């Protein structure tokens, strides 16, 4: 496990720009800041374990957190990636039910832990914050159902094509994209084995739809064909 730490983050300044906490007034944000607990997570550190009792939510200010479940064979299925500006654990905290996913730092990360009581008090005291939080929860639920739809209805090749085209501009036919996560993580997001993902990428390369350039750069050469592949 890496012992390096991310740069220090001025959480009080960031909280004002952190949706939906930006909907709170300055006094309420300061109250949350003073009672919340900053966390410095090393790469690989487990922040939440499945079946843990929830005590609050984690706001991500730097780094990246993966929320995942394990199959009986030990394989990972990534439910979501929490990047800076997002948070996780809110569904378990608000329902006061055990966490259903594990949460682990993929890189040195800076977080702020907000106890459930503070979150509930803010939702009661501020209608704009409560509405914004409700929209966040609805969006997260919709995204999860969209992901399930893709995984249940699309083949492995379609899932990979769909993933790549979502990273491209809407009106492009040819573009270069950067894969900012490793292929093993991409495979876990798409509910594929790394070997299956590599095989599909090789197939798309042979068909001229993509051109890998190193480990992180990929050229999408025929986006219209790639989009057609994702749809059929």
Radius of gyration: 20 Å
Structural class: alpha+beta
Number of strands: 11
SSE series: HHEEEEEEHEEHHHEHHEEH
Structural features, described:
The chain is an alpha+beta fold. Helices cover 42% and strands 23% of the residues. The protein contains nine helices and eleven strands. A hairpin with a 3-residue loop joins strand 10 (210-213) and strand 11 (217-220). The longest helix is centred in the middle third of the chain and has 27 residues, at 127-153. The mean pLDDT is 89.
Core attributes:
232 residues; alpha+beta; 9 helices
Provide a quick synopsis of the model.
The chain is of the alpha+beta class and 232 residues long. Helices cover 42% and strands 23% of the residues.
Task: Produce the secondary structure layout.
Elements: H1 11-15, H2 26-35, E1 37-41, E2 46-48, E3 56-62, E4 65-70, E5 76-82, E6 87-88, H3 90-95, E7 102-105, E8 109-115, H4 116-125, H5 127-153, H6 156-166, E9 175-178, H7 183-189, H8 194-206, E10 210-213, E11 217-220, H9 223-231
Antiparallel strand pairs: 1-8, 2-7, 3-6, 3-8, 4-5, 4-7, 9-11, 10-11
Helix pairs in contact: 4-5, 6-9, 7-8
